[in-house]
Design goal:
The chain contains 17 helices and 9 strands. The chain has about 450 residues and is mainly alpha-helical.
Length: about 450
Amino acid sequence: MPQHLIDSTFITCDVMAAWARGTDRFAYSPAALQRLQSDRAVVQRHIDSGAPVYGLNTGLGGNLAYRLDPGEVVAFQEQVIVGRMIGMGAPLPQDVVRAAQLARVISFARGGTGVSPEAAQAVMQLLDRGVTPVVPMFGSIGAGDLGLSAHLAAPVIGQGEAFFQGRRHDGAAALAAAGLTPARLQAKDGLGLINASPVTAGYAALVASDLAQLLLVAAGVAALADEGYAANLSVFDPRIAAARPAGAQVAAAALFRALLAGSSLYGAPPRSIQDAVSFRTMAQVFGSTHAALNMLSDAVEAEVNGISDSPLVLAAQGEMLSSPNFHPPMIALAFDSMAIALTHLATASVQRLIKLQTPTLSGLPRYLSPVGGASVGFNAMQKTAAALHAEIRLKATPASLDAVVVSDTVEDHATHALLCVRKLDEQMQLMRHLVAVEALV
């Protein structure tokens, strides 16, 4: 079984998805371990100086003004985690949680978190041994995943729950079954283990990877609809796409030319000078959707490969700075935008499959029935498609617009990024069904 050394190498969404859904082993590279040591030396100097540093020797959130006594610091680390295990609902899928574990160790490996090497190794050991924490679905407002990250980290100290070899255990039992022991946390470890957005980043990477595949399948099905409808393929002429190269329509037109290469439709005059818009604008609609996908992938990969911890440790300067990088508005905006783009694809898909069944438009038998007469053919599937479209449209409602002020009114803005990611994932499930209906027609 291969082992992947986690370093500072750039990680793509597709790599994250393959690792999260595989059974490979993981470890830190020597360079990553050195970065952890260097960061920890900076943390220790700040501990020794006694200067106030958020989360190091102070309370958190509304308790910011409280200064921890030196004797409280170690016990406070477990309190930070256990006191923030606020998640509710069904567990997130195990591949999502493994992606979250990966996101966290990737961040540790890049430096800047200030967690002790021992704590970072404890998180890595869970991932490497296949111990997958039970992380509930609800509890993140997209201003960091503090509450859900607490569930992600809890098994490290023998708390919470985890899956191991197909069984659900309490945290201590899962560690024992995997041959591990609870970690002893040091100053800043409690906050360092949970103060980021690994659940959002990991889940978003899986959705981004899956979405790229879904869009390719949807394009292939749309090309089949063109063939069945005897559509006018001149709309994919590269000169047309280049005349106004908005979004990714040049690449989308090239994709459709490749999918339809060799079609008999190129060898005869077009059946119609101009088809319905759902056929005529495939390159424009798919091109816009791919542009939205590019924005989404860039936002996700920036999150996966970035460091969102606060305070941020700058080893070269010996500093620890409060950082607002926990806030992921680009993730929220990109996923909300993508949900709207998918709705445009869904609308065009429904219109094409209806028009294929309409003889006055397609020249094909009514409802595509080879029998005719009273045969319903594929007509009833139009209702299924319409029902799916309604649900897809509902999932396009932006999730990033609303925020409730919490924590003594200090936390007065939130992105709901994780909700945006989960909502798009649910919309994609519906979209797969709709693409399947169009493929059947």
